Amino acid sequence: MSEVKLTRNQGLVFDALQAAEAPLSAYTILDRLRGEGFRAPLQVYRALEKLLALGLVHRLESINAFVACSHPHHDHGESLVAFAICQTCGDVREFAAPAAAAGLRDWAAGAGFKPAKTTIELSGLCRACSAAGA
Amino acid sequence: MSEVKLTRNQGLVFDALQAAEAPLSAYTILDRLRGEGFRAPLQVYRALEKLLALGLVHRLESINAFVACSHPHHDHGESLVAFAICQTCGDVREFAAPAAAAGLRDWAAGAGFKPAKTTIELSGLCRACSAAGA
DNA sequence: TGCCAGACGTTATAGCGTAACACAACGGCC
DNA sequence: GGCCGTTGTGTTACGCTATAACGTCTGGCA
Ligand SMILES: [Zn+2]
Ligand SMILES: [Zn+2]
Ligand SMILES: [Zn+2]
Ligand SMILES: [Zn+2]
Which nucleotide is nearest to A61 (CA to C1')? Predict the structure, then answer.
């Protein structure tokens, strides 16, 4: 088992991300935790660094924000994870993308490229906003 | 045909990106064009905005940098483009990812998500650096 | 000629992320 | 318990990334 004990700061940042319904920027997290004694961005970034390493949190490169992992229990090992980000409501859905992962792995094998980290992010409209936006 | 006439600033920024062997940040572009009269970030960002809209330039979200398109003639219409970024030498390869595109399109169709823009970026080691790094 | 959309120049400001330093807390080990 | 390396913390300061807001200028077209 991988029962990791988080420190106070790490736990606070993680809780903030889990409580949020949308991704949060590091500075938004900072503001939400000022009541808990947070004063500087580094406190947030250091906690995020650990949470990212543990796989409990993901970074959304295209919007410079962070989300709690939707399914932190099972490692998303070699089946890459992807994100669908709604440009209207900000909602994010995390999903596995095995077909995409396979295609990219094939290309990498042919090109001799050794991937260390893969980013797949879709920006667009979620079903609800797509219906509402008519 | 889509022979677009670029303005002076747009042309200078595009030339700077084409001349570079690696992606450039907006501020690096600014520094390289100071001799041409560039003084403020906005001059670069405005030119980039247009070049991105024209599809002549791509933005690499994971490293906040920009590259000239490798094959600007044929639109990469519905076959998504992906990037392999070497963490050691900074080299970037742009490639089409039809299998990944299909997989993501399938998921989006099932989830009711309408993608507007898709980001696929692999960070890792290129063949040369992988061999050298032993 | 008059108009207008788009590009341009400038200043200022907002947002994202890290360097550097010193100190405290934890845990293994003897 | 006392030692010591590792990890986390708090704070200040700084650098990089991106946009807001304003006014001006140009080029194309009725
Ligand atoms: Zn996850
Ligand atoms: Zn939505
Ligand atoms: Zn391209
Ligand atoms: Zn390389």
Answer: C16
Of B97, B114, B127, the CB nearest to A113: B127
Q: Is the pTM of this model over 0.85?
A: yes
A42 touches strand C (CB under 7 A): yes
pLDDT in tens, B5-57: 899 999 999 999 999 999 999 999 999 999 999 999 999 999 999 999 999 99
Contact criterion met (CB below 8 Å) for B100 and A104: yes
Q: What is the pLDDT of residue A35?
A: 97
The number of angstroms, rounded, from the C-alpha of A117 to the middle of its chain's C-alpha atoms is: 13
Nearest to A118 by CA among B110, B55, B104, B106: B104
Domain that holds residue B109: 77-134
Give CA–CA dist B128/B116, Å, rounded. 35
Helix (H) or strand (E) holding A57: strand A57-60
User: Nearest 10 degrees: CA dihedral of A75, A81, A86, A90?
Assistant: 30
Q: Do A36 and A61 belong together in one domain?
A: yes
Residue A7, domain CATH: 1.10.10.10
Distance in angstroms (rounded) separating the CA atoms of residues A131 and A35 = 39
